[in-house]
Amino acid sequence: MRKKRFILFMAFTLIFVLLAGCAQTTPTPGPAPKEESQLIFALWSAPTGIFNYNLYESRYDADSMGPIFDGMLRSEPDLSLHPNLAEVAEIRNNGLVFYYKLRDDIKWHDGQPITTADVKFTFEWMIHPDYTGVRASLWNKLEGYEAYNTGKATFVSGIRVLNDREIEFHFTQIDAPAYLNVSTWRISPKHIFEGTPIKDLEKHEAIRKPVGSGPFKYEDYVEGQYFSMVKNENYHGGVPKIDRIIVKVANPDAALAELLTGSVDAAWMMPNAKDWKNFNASGFLSIIEYPQNGFQYMGLANQHVLFNDAKVRQALTYAINRPSVVKDLLDGMGIVQVGHMSSVSWAYNDSLKAYPFDPAKAKTLLAEAGWTPGADGILQKDGKKFSFKLSYPTGNVVRMNTALVIQQNLKEVGIEVQLDIMEFSALSDKVYKDGDFEAYLMGWGLAADPDATSIWASDSSWNAVKFLHPKNDELLKAGRAVVDVAARKKIYDEWQQLLYNEAPYVFLYAANEAYVYNGALKEFKPNPFGIWWDVEKWHWDK
Fold this sequence. Notes:
The chain has about 550 residues and is α+β, with helices and mostly antiparallel strands. It has 17 helices and 25 strands.
């Protein structure tokens, strides 16, 4: 009976996943690590220290804290949902009500029981008018959202606690991504945070020293160096087989060397033919590679005088040699990105073809927009030079080299680019908190559902480029309001066409995702939608 209840999810969302192109090499495992029960995992940029799902914005934070937290259900690589904190989940009232019943043996890492009060607290935190994060819009179809979000109500009427173990979420209309989002959202402990004003929760000690319910418990965090966690001996899903995981910061060159010497056991790596040859020659390293559920882009301040014309934004896309970036910097292990959707999404519009590299077309569009060469060769208009600062973060070597390509390519069409490199956390603040930028380089890791409201809605703080087009909001709302996959895809195809025409970003490339690891590590199965989903099963082959 329980299995049938979970099958309802697939009937409700009809999500299909395209995992074609995945590749894995499995050389003979080398010697087991010096400390068999420990795993050292390398990321190439430092987390910002925001270790809570309600507040984090960096992938590096997510990849550090993943094993700490649990949702009511867990998602497998095929996006099927299975019991986790909840042992029962049901969709009721024609998709407007979600019912969950928690297990009776689940506890926080500090030993306190997990109840529906924690679930209610987690979601109301994100809807509260003083919430400092960016995810409120995910829940705006919940009954009572507006009243609570504007301070007119003291609770969200659509989140109904039936008792300590049973809870319902009531929606005012069909919201296609809601069941996946609610079911898998990582729950926070109410007893840890209550008493602190919502506006101050981002400064709470438990944001940097998280208390969760997942298979691993927080142990230590040293900013810019590492995040460590130890296994949860009382984990309801079974005691993990690895005692400790250390997520350390190591740039790609350092990670490569440490993988080959065995001082790092696994690392997120950018595909590179030379490195792959070294890894394969090691005799003990394995490689998992697959299309990425995400992309890299150049964000443009759409309301800035330089970029407020779609013809100019299109021209920049034509002017940058994106095929060369994929061929030369990625060794062909990736694709030129066409728009917001990733190639692994069922909503991907494959009728759209990437703008070709065409400097002549770029010059024509710039001329049509009123930009003409000055005496020094730099384009000018109304006495203003076409010169801007491109900000980008350290860590990702391909992205750093792409900045140089962009600078050179745009120089060839008469645009001056000043390069501005900084730490990722500083760039994140510059873009999302201060809004003090002209252009920047970043990447998006995308969710399993194609809904992009939290990134692109006019009122979203993640819409840092200020893409304000009425059709944009209209299509985003329409895409959430239907469940049928064919109908949703038609809407998202139109939305992708809009972005294709308006070019609010220069969509750059999607490198294949790759992880390199010691072949003695078993059950390590990262996929386009996550890496930690079965971490409690990982173990060393003795």
